[in-house]
Design brief:
xylose isomerase activity; isomerase; TIM Barrel; Xylose_isom_bac; two-stranded antiparallel sheet; alpha/beta; EC 5.3.1.5; 12 strands; Xyl_isomerase-like_sf; about 425 residues; 2 domains
């Protein structure tokens, strides 16, 4: 039954690159085979509930611009209306998954018991929607950053009562994710950091955060949740110093506390940029360490110093990202979540649909370009040639040697190497053949 919110908008179809329709897939054909697998199964698209349905259009300098039928989002009736609209859009787009924070799908009731009751009620309601539509849950997570109780963090809060409230909230969210058949659970540490060392005990906060994560892993096994536990790197914003700043920081933290075998990473393009990295760098590092689980696909405004969460529109960037995903063998439980939102001036329902259509097409083009690069093998060949010297018996023996022996060899053989070209521009030109 239609909610009326998307009246006049039909189910989006694949029409091919020559289509002139504003609401058609030109490149995203779910059944197209790419490297032996359906495109839909490669990309595993998910819609973010928070940006698409819960966000009201505010920014640091202005309040609400979106006026939706489910506003204000403060009771279960409007919460269920929001769910009706969400699943209607899922049917229009045809993407296989969605994602949520608890605060997106249930109203804030001011206390834990009522919040939990609301979460459990909407979980049952969404379960019925999933069964009716076939849309599945990629991951759930807890919002432990918006409410004022979390202003000093959740797992890292100096007040143990806040830690307790956060832990209880996460338990409820894992239970809901498990009940809905979620394939992952994400720990998004929006305020796990600090503003000043004048009031911060770094060691205690790190230990408490690690203990919190260990409790989550233990509970996963206790209830038989087979999904992946994910941590999302996030720099600077909102805390000046985030404990989960980037991929390298997260990997170091997880290894220090022995959690590296139980937790992988959900990596966002916008966060990578804020951390001073490229998206492909963060993906490559996580994949190299066996810790790439899932991705949030968005972009930042490169003239802005904060997380603008815009839909992707840059095929070369997206292609290089999927190159890393395909190179590691592709997603397992993870996927491509559009952690992206409309601009606050884009008021119409059709804007929301069109934004996802465009993002899905960009990702499809990037995926196909990445697959073509891998199948061509040019980058892999160039890497093999650049590092070929390390495959020789002499180089391998040197790694098992010591400084004294290496010095004697350099003196005896008169080793005086000349630098070799890194060929960067030629390799960039090679990539441009595919994108």
């Amino acid at each position: 039954m239609s909610t009326g919110f998307f009246d006049g908008i039909d189910t989006i179809r694949y029409e091919g690159p020559q289509s002139t329709s504003e609401l058609a897939y030109r490149h995203y054909d779910p059944d197209e085979m790419v490297m032996g697998k359906r495109m839909e199964d490669h990309l595993r698209f998910a819609v973010a509930w928070w940006h698409s349905f819960a966000w009201e259009g505010g920014d640091p300098f202005g309040g609400q611009t979106f006026v939706r039928p489910w506003h204000p989002q403060d009771d279960m009736g409007r919460t269920k209306m929001k769910a009706d609209v969400a699943f209607e859009m899922f049917g229009i787009l045809g993407q296989p998954f969605y994602c949520w924070h608890d605060a997106d799908i249930r109203p804030e009731m001011g206390n834990y018991a009522d919040n939990l009751a609301g979460l459990e009620e909407i979980t049952d309601y969404m379960g019925q929607k999933q069964e009716a539509t076939g849309t599945r849950l990629l991951w759930g997570t807890a919002n432990l950053f918006s409410h004022r109780r979390f202003m000093s963090g959740a797992a890292t809060n100096p007040d143990p009562e806040v830690f307790a409230f956060a832990a209880a909230t996460v338990k409820g969210c894992i239970d809901a994710t498990h009940k809905l058949g979620g394939q992952n659970y994400v720990l998004w540490g929006g305020r796990e950091g600090y503003e000043t060392l004048l009031n911060t005990d770094l060691g205690r906060e790190a230990d408490n955060m690690a203990r919190f994560l260990s409790m989550v892993v233990d509970y996963k096994h206790k209830i038989g949740f087979e999904g992946t536990i994910l941590v999302e790197p996030k720099p600077q914003e909102p805390s000046k110093h985030q404990y989960d700043y980037d991929v390298a920081t997260c990997i170091g933290f997880l290894r220090k506390y022995g959690l590296q075998d139980d937790i992988k990473l959900n990596i966002e393009q916008g966060h990578a940029i804020l951390a001073g990295h490229s998206f492909e760098h963060e993906l490559a590092l996580a994949a190299t360490e066996g810790m790439l689980g899932s991705i949030d696909m968005n972009r930042n405004d490169y003239q802005s110093g904060w997380d603008t969460d815009q839909f992707p529109n840059n095929v070369p960037e997206v292609a290089l990202a999927y190159y890393q995903v395909l190179k590691m063998g592709g997603f397992t439980t993870g996927g491509t979540n559009f952690d992206a939102k409309l601009r606050r001036q884009s008021l119409d329902p059709v804007d929301l649909v069109a934004a996802h259509v465009g993002g899905m097409d960009i990702c499809a083009r990037g995926l196909k370009a990445a697959a073509a690069m891998l199948e061509d093998g040019g980058l892999e060949q160039a890497l093999a040639e650049r590092y070929a010297g390390w495959d020789t018996p002499g180089a391998q023996a040197m790694l098992q040697s010591d400084l004294g022996a290496i010095q004697r060899r350099v003196l005896e053989e008169g080793i005086n190497p000349e630098p070799r070209s890194g060929r960067q521009e030629r390799l960039e030109n090679w990539v441009n053949r595919f994108v």
